[in-house]
Amino acid sequence: MIKSLLDSNEQSNDEKISSTASSSEERTSLPGFVKKSVEEVSKKAFDEETTKSLRESGLAWSAAIALFASVVFMMAIGWIIDTLLETAPLGIVVGIIFGALIGFYQFFRITSQIFK
After folding, report:
1. Domain ranges of the chain
2. Buried/exposed 20-52: b ≥16 CB within 10 Å, e otherwise
3. What is the pLDDT of residue 66?
4. Best CA proximity match to 63, nearest among 104, 98, 96
5. I need a surface site. Which of 44, 98, 100, 110 has the fewest CB within 10 A?
């Protein structure tokens, strides 16, 4: 009895899935003229110059975030060291200096990829 209930439940689930798939295909199918215009726009939108520009802007954002994050991260580590060792501003200052050094190294490493 339990086996027959499980089998009927599986069959009803399969029917639900197949009906959902066919209805979603009907909803997502576009008329021919819309498909053609979407294809034309996508070809024009991603030409070589646009792709290069997007890549360069992404690298620039990455370089800026790496610089900022390294300074903040090393400053936080310096603050933790200050708290543990009770060496008031020394840890934060050293953390900011090391963070700036690491950040500028990363910044120049990433920006050199832009100008290749």
Report:
1. 47-114
2. eeeeeeeeeeeeeeeeeeeeeeeeeeeeeeeee
3. 95
4. 104
5. 44
Q: How far apart are CA 42 and CA 49, in angstroms?
A: 14
CA separation for the pair 48, 55 (Å, rounded) = 11
- The DSSP symbol for 87 reads -
Look up the pTM and report it. 0.58
Alpha carbon separation from 17 to 12, 25, 98 (Å, rounded): 9, 12, 57
Q: What are the tokens at 33?
A: 């003229």
CA trace torsion 11, 15, 21, 23 (10° rounding): -170
C-alpha pair distances (Å), 65 with each of 47, 69, 71, 91, 101: 27, 6, 10, 23, 14
Q: What is the tens place of the pLDDT at every residue in 12-55? A: 555 555 555 454 445 566 666 666 666 666 666 667 788 888 88
